[in-house]
Write a structure and sequence with these properties.
binds magnesium ion, 223 residues, alpha/beta, binds adenosine-5'-diphosphate, 6-stranded mixed β-sheet, 4-stranded antiparallel β-sheet, Rossmann fold
């Protein structure tokens, strides 16, 4: 279970303080496919960032299973990022000088997985997103949708408990966006991980088993 308990994250501006997250409480069982929608600036990215340990709440508790993320030290946070978490952003952040397979394998090698095992895993996740025929290509040889599917494969390679996706189709045309949506659905259908998807695409959001709506830093509808 992933649990947020009265989580608040404030940002101070010259004009005053805003609450990017304002007393948010949520419980998400592992394995669920959750979508998060809401107007720009309502706190969606902040929610993903605190779940990923990229940002720390000012108040409240965040539990990823038995890990208290709100008071985790550097070592525990690093472990969480390497072993429990996959993240996909709007921009794919692939390394241009590395092939598709090398991009996907990199996080596994960085955390010390043996090369033989990591290569088998790379093949599996590239199959999953339908890109095994592209493994020796370089990012610039791919369409935007293909690059994003590589980023999804990379995020999934380490078998994370939690996959966070922040507007992964936000930078894609509709054809590429639907290919990416298909890969996300495959992941959800096979129950490979907990998937928390922030999107502006209402049709994509409706495919989730649970739809959370946010407004002004709060959960307007918990789904
Ligand atoms: N690093 C930051 N510094 C200051 N304000 C921020 C920062 N990150 C987010 N905010 C503010 O917090 C609010 C929520 O932002 P965000 O979570 O990015 O919203 P969303 O992803 O829903 O568009 C916004 O008002 C935004 O300006
Ligand atoms: Mg955002």
């Amino acid at each position: 279970m992933i649990r947020l308990d009265h989580v608040t994250r404030r940002y101070s501006h010259s004009a005053g303080t805003i609450r990017a997250l304002d007393d948010v409480s949520l419980e998400i069982p592992f394995g669920t496919f959750v979508s998060v929608t809401g107007p720009s600036g309502c706190g969606k990215s902040t929610l993903l960032n605190v779940l990923g340990g990229l940002d720390t709440p000012d108040e409240g508790e965040i539990w990823i299973g038995d890990l208290p993320l709100h008071r985790a030290g550097d070592a525990a946070l690093t472990r969480h990022r390497r072993f429990d978490l996959g993240i996909v952003f709007q921009f794919f952040n692939l390394l241009p000088a590395m092939t598709v397979a090398e991009n996907v394998e990199l996080p596994l090698l960085l955390r010390g997985d043996p090369a033989g095992r990591s290569q088998a895993r790379v093949k599996e996740v590239l199959d999953l997103v339908g890109l095994s025929s592209r493994s020796t290509h370089f990012p610039h040889q791919l369409s935007g949708g293909e690059m994003q599917r590589v980023a999804i494969a990379r995020a999934l390679a380490g078998r994370p408990k939690l996959l966070l996706a922040d507007e992964p189709t936000g930078n894609l045309d509709s054809t590429n966006a639907s290919q990416v949506a298909e890969s996300l659905l495959t992941i959800a259908a096979q129950n490979l991980t907990t998937l928390i998807l922030v999107t502006h695409d209402e049709a994509l959001a409706r495919l989730a088993s649970r739809q959370i709506r946010m407004r002004d830093g709060q959960v307007a509808s918990p789904g």
